[in-house]
Amino acid sequence: MQYFIGIVPPQKFTVRIIQFQNRWSNNRLQQVVEPHITVKAQGGLYPDLEWLQYVKKVCSSCSPFELSLTAPICIGDSVIGLGVRSQHLSELHTRIVKAVSPPPELIARYFELDSYLPHLTLGQTWWGLNAAELVEMQELARTELTPFPTWTATHLRVYTEIQPDRYVPYEDIALG
Q1: Is the separation of the CB atoms in 86 and 62 below 8 Å?
Q2: Burial of 167 (0-12, 13-18, 19+ CB in 10 A)
Q3: How confident is the model at residue 146 (pLDDT cuts 50, 70, 90)?
Q4: Which of 2, 93, 84 is nearest to 43 (CA)?
Q5: Are strands 119-124 and 166-174 parallel, antiparallel or unpaired?
Q6: No. of H helices and E strands in the chain?
Q7: How far from 110 is each of 5, 26, 43, 55, 170, CA to CA, in Å?
Q8: In a designed cystine with 45, which of 3, 87, 97, 159 is the match (CB 3.0 to 4.6 A)?
């Protein structure tokens, strides 16, 4: 069983993202997990849940903060996502990674700390899209998903894998 931690966008925008993703019939991402911004990837989040107490401690000392989604970005040649602008998200990410303390090889594997690039994934080749579809998705997202929302993150959401490649909400943890 695997876990990861994210922030969910406002519900109205989540619905728009899912409708947008569904325009590509071979885009399987929405079957894997709801739209989210990953704050802490799977590395170090073990089934014993011992890490959860450390995450809750970090969250209790972090006030709610504002963040915005921005224009679509390419991550390598296999992922299209919406960018994220926030003064506090990277700091929260770093604090959680340090509290969980995964081994360096997992930090590298999951692109954490210095390699962390917050984004909301719209599609990727791993989940069924090809390179041409990613280009099309990026172009359409620039116009069809605007205006990009700004909101206050009040909680983090822990996701759990209920079967291979299928994640559902496990627990919400309030900030502050």
Answers
A1: no
A2: buried
A3: very high
A4: 2
A5: unpaired
A6: 6, 8
A7: 13, 25, 7, 18, 20
A8: 3
- Quote the CA–CA distance of 33 and 16 in Å, as a whole number: 15
| CA distances in angstroms from 93 to 7, 57, 89, listed in the order given | 11, 13, 6
Q: Which domains does the chain have, with CATH numbers?
A: 3-174 (3.90.1140.10)
End-to-end CA distance of the chain: 28
Please give the Cα distance from 52 to 122 (Å, whole number).
28
Question: What is the Cα 78 distance to its own chain's centre?
Answer: 16
What pTM was computed for the model?
0.94
Q: Compute CA distances 175 → 54, 78, 134, whole Å.
A: 13, 32, 34
Contact 118, 37 (CB under 8 A): yes
Nearest to 125 by CA among 137, 109, 117, 116: 137
Residue 40 has pLDDT above 90, yes or no: yes
Tokens of 160: 């759990």
